[in-house]
Amino acid sequence: GVLTLLVAAVLTLTACAGGARADFAQQFRGDPAIEEFELTTGDNMPFTDGVRATVALREDLSDDEATALLSKFSAFVRDHSDEPVQITVREGTITIPVFGTESVTLQAREAAFAIATEFGVDSIALSATTDSERISGVSVEVSSDLHTAFSAARSAPERLLPLTAPAGPHITVKNADSTVHISGVPGRWLDDAEVSWTLVSAAVPISGVRAGADEVRFTLADEADAAEAQALIARAESAFQTPITFASPLVLLGLNGTGDEARLMLSELDDDTRSLILSVWSNDARAEFSVATADDVAGVEAALATLPASSRGALEVTVVVSRR
After folding, report:
1. Which of 41-45, 130-134, 205-209 has the lowest mean pLDDT?
2. What's the CA dihedral at 149, 155, 157, 163 to 10 degrees?
3. What are φ and ψ of residue 120, in 5° steps?
4. CA separation for the pair 16, 205 (Å, rounded)
5. What pLDDT shows up at residue 14?
6. pLDDT value at residue 18
7. Of 160, 184, 162, nearest to 172 (Cα)?
8. Measured distance CA(278)–CA(292) in Å, rounded
9. Could you please report the per-residue DSSP string of 128-141?
10. Which residues contact 28 (CB under 8 A, 6 or more apart)?
11. 158 Cβ neighbours under 8 A, 6+ residues apart
12. Cβ pair 135, 123 in contact under 8 A
């Protein structure tokens, strides 16, 4: 009757709550090499099979102790091959996935530490697809200059070649405040980004970069350098296949925006009006001029309204009080 159904339900839930998740907790809880770990089910739903384990190793482990624990994790993955098992291990500055093949896990660890040491990165995290023993992503955080960022973006995938798919891994190199953000599967865009950075940075200061397959956008330290930077790209002997654009503290760019029309409008304003403008954001369809006070809005709007239509082109122009 009802009691039988209740007992059956409890037994079913108990069985479902076991499996890889329970086995992991039983096998590794209290392991002296582990600082802490967090477990969720394979698809983040209760009473389902599998496990996702995020494990932090103790910082004072010897190399032999760390590799011995990774070998145990690989064995655990093999022993639970009939369930979705994902184990991610954080060891110092590196984070790596665990594979069922022990040698692949240890190669990933060795490569991650080699990259971290060579470039002095703050952290490096490798990720993998769940259906193959391949590294699919590399995320690196740097605190040093753009030269290091580009070197890491270029070299990290090469260091991982034996472990990645033929197309290469998705690489992300960034810094803490995201003024540097290089992201994508390495290709011509990365060549264009590095060559253009070398060219322009030799002439004017660059404070940031966002680079990907669709666009390479540099942030200049000073808007006054924008014309020179654009001219350098236009005169370059090698043709760039990826659009190269320039933002600055004054001219902020939306996705695929060049800022050309916004800059033209700025150049045609008088000095007093320009001094009221804190920044202008543009994606080449819209331009939003930011000012400090509501009183400044009316003055800038009036000045912009006097500009010839050829200056603003098809831009939708607004003036707002800065939210910063």
Report:
1. 41-45
2. -140
3. 60, 40
4. 59
5. 38
6. 61
7. 184
8. 7
9. E-TTSS-EEEEEEE
10. 34, 37, 55, 72
11. none
12. no
Secondary structure of residue 158 in the 3-state scheme: helix
Residue 323 pLDDT grade (very low, low, confident, very high; cuts 50, 70, 90): confident
Structure tokens at 122: 């703050």
- Burial bucket for residue 157 (CB in 10 Å: 0-12, 13-18, 19+): buried
Residue 11 has pLDDT above 50, yes or no: no
Among 89, 26, 21, 25, residue whose Cα is nearest residue 57: 89
* Contacts for 289 with CB less than 8 Å, ≥ 6 apart: 277, 279, 280, 300, 304, 317, 318, 319, 320
Give the per-residue pLDDT at 77.
Answer: 95
Query: Checking phi first, is residue 87 left (phi over 0); if not, alpha (psi -120 to 50) or beta?
Result: beta
Residue keyed to tokens 């993955």: 77
Q: Residue 46: exposed, middle, or buried by beta-carbon count in 10 A (0-12, 13-18, 19+)? A: exposed
Q: Is the pLDDT of residue 7 over 80?
A: no
pLDDT of residue 181: 96
Indicate the length of the chain as a whole number.
324
Distance between CA atoms of 79 and 21, rounded to whole angstroms? 13
| Cα 96 to Cα 126: distance, rounded to the nearest angstrom | 5
Q: What pTM does this model have?
A: 0.85
> Could you tell me if 193 and 242 are in contact, meaning their C-beta atoms sit under 8 angstroms apart?
yes
Over residues 178-207, the mean pLDDT reads: 95
